[in-house]
Design a protein that fits this description.
This protein is mainly alpha-helical. It has one domain. It starts with a helix and ends in an 8-residue tail after the last helix.
Length: 80
Amino acid sequence: MGGHQGQHGAAEDVLGWETRRQPDWFRESSLVLKGLIEKRNDLFGRWLKSGRNSDRQRYVAQRRKAAAAVKMAPGEGKGD
């Protein structure tokens, strides 16, 4: 089984990691969007741990806020 790790490591050394490509509209608004998305993800994790309805409500409100910000981002969904 160790052979696969060696091949994988060699491929990684030669090819490196491809960075994730993001649309221009996302990059232009990334500071705001990333903050909202991180907060959404944190609230989701908190809700999963606690199971409390109040945590779920906070998560849902943040999810909506993040989705609205994505829709309002300049050029979103226009194939930029």
